[in-house]
Write a structure and sequence with these properties.
Helix content is 6%, strand content 54%. The protein is mainly β. The longest helix has 9 residues.
Length: 358
């Protein structure tokens, strides 16, 4: 308990509150979702925990928030107990997220979507000798992400909120094994507003310059990864070239070509007994369809790709990418997770690129 209290003291906690500065506390209750039979031995009971949240003031970021119906955004601290002290223990996480209202009924009822992402740690992780059952979490630092649907009842300055969604913990295969933990979450929150809700009519913000209609952009990326039962770390490199149509000030849709070099594929081919000495086995190339939600200079990026060459032993030619891009004028910084297949992280990529607008 003292570790939890210490964490609360040193971490500044804040969460969205529909464009209003607020503080709230949530009780979390859920269960581990089985996405592979190897997760079943870890399930000993329900997942319980709490969240402490603090919301940004509604005066922040109005130049883009007006385009999303004035959402809120912020940070939260999460604590979860997984009902299995021997193998999983508990987790601590700090996340940033955005809460987008899709429907408001007066000043009392609201419904919408929450998206969360951040970093966290588990008290118990995989150890080949002392904790071989836990093939889900093998590193101290992990990425966490969650999607939720919420409903809120407000009686200013107090509000009550219920939300439900799916939480995921993974290290992106920086260290193996890495099956990850998925939890179906239910959350009940009690909160307090520090200010009135922003009025869209009186706070239109600055929409900025009219965006370009098309973009051509490219980026290079690197990442490190491991595979199960192998201590060696492999360097993953990538190159992507894309053509993007700017649909609106907050939406982009594009197509691209990806080139990946993954030395781990050679070792996998040897493990499956299909390696024939071909040195080019590490190289893969594919087409992707991608989309971006823009929040000022930051974008939430998702992509679906398909490798053009079948190497025979890989579980899927499909791959998925999700993460963030940051624009500094025309220079692009990226942090993405690539997964094969969906919900099975393969590598975390960090990249830099450049765009041409017209």
């Amino acid at each position: 308990m003292y570790k939890i209290l210490l964490t609360l003291c040193v971490v500044f906690l804040w969460q969205v509150a529909l464009s209003q500065e607020a503080i709230s506390v949530s009780y979390d209750y859920g269960k581990i979702a089985v996405h592979t039979p190897l997760i079943e031995p870890l399930i000993k009971g329900p997942v319980k925990g709490f969240t402490i949240n603090y919301a940004f003031s509604n005066s922040q970021g109005l130049h883009w928030r007006r385009l999303y119906n004035f959402p809120g955004y912020g940070l939260s601290y999460h604590y979860k107990d997984y009902g299995n002290p021997a193998h999983l223990g508990s987790s601590h996480a700090v996340t940033g997220f955005i809460q987008i209202p899709l429907l408001r009924i007066g000043d009392v009822l609201s419904f919408g979507f929450k998206g969360l992402t951040g970093v966290g740690m588990f008290t118990n992780k995989y150890d080949a000798v002392e904790n071989p059952v836990n093939k889900a979490i093998s590193s101290s630092l992990n990425i966490t992400a969650e999607t939720r649907l919420f409903s809120r009842i407000s009686f200013h300055p107090v509000f009550i909120e219920y939300s439900s969604g799916l939480n995921h913990f993974s290290n992106g295969l920086v260290k193996a094994p890495n099956l990850g933990i998925n939890v179906i979450n239910n959350n009940i929150s009690l909160g307090y507003y520090f200010e009135e809700r922003v009025s869209p009519a009186g706070n239109s913000g600055n929409p900025g310059e009219k965006p370009a209609r098309y973009e051509i952009w490219g980026a290079t990326s690197i990442g490190i990864k491991q595979i199960d039962n192998e201590p060696k770390t492999f360097l993953f490199t990538g190159l992507t070239v894309n053509f993007t149509r700017v649909l609106s000030p907050v939406n982009k849709l594009g197509i691209g070509y990806d080139f990946h070099k993954d030395p781990a594929l050679v070792l996998l081919a040897k493990k499956y007994g299909v390696y024939e000495g071909y040195k080019g086995l590490s190289y893969r190339y594919g087409l992707n369809l991608n989309h971006e939600f823009l929040f000022g200079n930051t974008a939430f990026y998702t992509g679906y790709g398909y490798y053009l060459k079948d190497i025979g032993y890989n579980p899927s030619r499909r791959y998925y990418k999700a993460g963030f891009k940051y624009y500094c004028n025309n220079i692009i910084g990226m942090a993405l997770i690539r997964a094969i297949p969906l919900f099975r992280a393969d590598v975390v990529e960090f990249g830099i690129g450049y765009r041409l607008q017209y």
